[in-house]
Design a protein that fits this description.
Two copies of one chain form a homodimer. Chain A is α+β, with helices and mostly antiparallel strands. Chain A has five helices and twelve strands. Helix content of chain A is 34%, strand content 27%. Chain A has a five-stranded antiparallel β-sheet, with helices on one face. A five-stranded antiparallel β-sheet of chain A has the order 5-6-7-8-9, with helices on one face. In chain A, strand 5 and strand 6 form a beta hairpin. Chains A and B meet through helix 3, helix 4, strand 11 and helix 5 of A and helix 3, helix 4, strand 11 and helix 5 of B.
């Protein structure tokens, strides 16, 4: 499986993805699921993928191929983030249709993948899209400033309870990492290392991103302190009234 | 959907179930999914159910019917918790087989339900079983002191991080209620009121259990304080190193 999470907040964008893939429990590998693109000072975008690995790699392959051969439309030629979402969605839909046609099957869902696309083009607003295997998509808003794909349930409560559109980026990164830490502890199909990218609104700077390995001292400290917070928080909760224990 | 959780700890057993059922988003009802049985001073048991509502009610119906007509084996005639798990598993398997036979279909999974059975019989250890639709079952241990059925993922991280076999019952109840609060906030298919039962080891006392409604002042306070704990805990986490934000 996979867990990817992306936030579109007042001050910028935050992306975190795990890197574990599995085809059965005895076939576990590390594959990047977070891809950074951009032209410094002009546009920045990140694509995160979840689902069939061949499909996700084919989508990224086609998008890269178009860039390399300067075939239009491509990620650097489209005018708006909306057109970019359409391009990615169309590419995704076509990859799935082609593999299904070749396999002489009507069962598309084995080849499904979901994509998060976030970024900014000079002169326009930052956007974050959740693109479905059918090629259509939805857009993050102030009311719903985050999307998740893959193994999303374990890490959802902390986002639902703490995340708001106005949250500063450094706090949002911590919130996301806790969401991942919770998922990593409860589901072995999501695994380290993690890829993180933080983009500051209107900077049009292409961040390097950071890969967090198991032994990362900051992540380790975060995880340890969060465990302590929860255990202490639990003990500090009011003791149940007697009727709970009768 | 449903969320049920049961703990078998050093000092006793804790059971919590929600009560929401849905057949589509426009057909939502309140049904009890936690059933208490027992003979004061001799045996205590609780059954929690998740899945097809007709199946779960048929299982409880048959078990009650056997008790009423004093047909053997029944919940009060079996000698051990193991035999009780066999009886409940057999009843479950038969209910599913009968409905499938009558429907002239081989598709069993539409009628599936899962059951948690916990309790104690005089002179023997407390036990907690997770009974599958196939009628077989597994038993909670000191290593894995809890089971969940239904919509289990949202509420799993807090259990994985905080729950231990030695935890006092009043703290375990708080831990369970937080697990439910997290689930309630992230998934509308799990809903109030909640049914809770706490059983003290070797007491052989049949507890009344407590139903927690939306307006329950204790639960409300717990939920509020937990939100504060998480938000404050998040802010107190170490600030990401610069390389996270570049």
């Amino acid at each position: 499986m996979t867990y990817c999470c992306a936030l579109r907040l007042k001050d910028g964008l935050v992306f975190v993805s795990d890197t574990r893939t599995n085809a059965g429990v005895d076939h576990i590998s590390v594959f990047r699921k977070l891809y950074i693109f951009g032209i410094e000072g002009e546009r920045f975008l990140t694509i995160q993928t979840s689902g069939n690995l061949a499909t996700t790699q084919a989508v990224i392959g086609h998008l890269n191929n178009h860039l390399e051969l300067k075939q239009e439309p491509n990620l650097y030629s489209v005018n708006t983030m909306f057109e970019m979402a359409e391009l990615v969605g169309h590419t995704l839909k076509k990859v799935i249709a082609d593999v299904v046609e070749d396999a002489h099957t009507h069962e598309q869902s084995n080849y499904y993948c979901s994509i998060l696309l976030g970024g900014q083009i000079q002169g326009a607003e930052m956007q974050l899209y959740n693109i479905y295997p059918q090629g259509n998509f939805i857009c993050a808003t102030e009311d719903t400033p985050y999307f998740q794909i893959g193994e999303s349930k374990y890490g959802k409560p902390i986002l639902d309870r703490a995340l708001i559109y106005e949250m500063p980026l450094d706090e949002a990164v911590r919130c996301c990492l806790i969401s991942f830490d919770s998922t990593l502890r409860s589901n072995v199909s999501v695994g380290m290392p993690l890829d993180t990218v933080v983009y500051k609104k209107d900077s049009l700077h292409i961040p390097n991103g950071k890969r967090i390995y198991e032994e990362d001292p900051y992540f380790w400290k975060l995880s340890k302190q969060w465990s302590d917070t929860l255990r202490r928080g639990l003990q500090e909760l009011p003791i149940p009234t007697d009727d709970y224990l009768e």
